[in-house]
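Hey, quick one: can you model this chain's 3D structure?
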Amino acid sequence: MSEQKKVLIVDDSRVIHTMIRDMFSGAQIEILDAKDGIEGFALIDRERPNLILLDWLMSKQGGWETFQQIQAHPKLRRIPLVVMSGRKDEVTEKFPEPFAYFEFLKKPFTREELIAAIKSAKNKIPPVMSPENKILALEQQITKMQAEIAHLKRLTADILVFIQEKVK
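Sure thing. Here's the predicted structure for all 168 residues.
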């Protein structure tokens, strides 16, 4: 028998909790609730939800601090994350768009917008790589960086020649 899916809502607004619960009604999903980032991270660490819906602005511990805690744990980083806020500018202060590690959802939102954000968040989880594939990816990055360095050296040499000609 497969394990029941768990969704964690981390938000200090009871209205948001109720609204999201209503949006998931009828689905075979266990909804976990946390009122702030401290409680939320404890549930993330203990329950390992399949999805995290994280408010950015909360009174005790906000989304930024909670996000940093999640990112510090490789296994928790693999949980799809939707950041919710009525003020996108608060999020873009910390992260430039496009958001690489989570999906942003502007409050208030519809059920369709929530579903689209969840799908997008799932697509932002990088695939698990074997050690051999990690080494291959690093070797490819090194090759690319070496080519960029060689290009920069050529440009620097061209600039030096240009300056020397102007000084004569």
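One thing worth noting: The first helix runs from residue 14 to 23.
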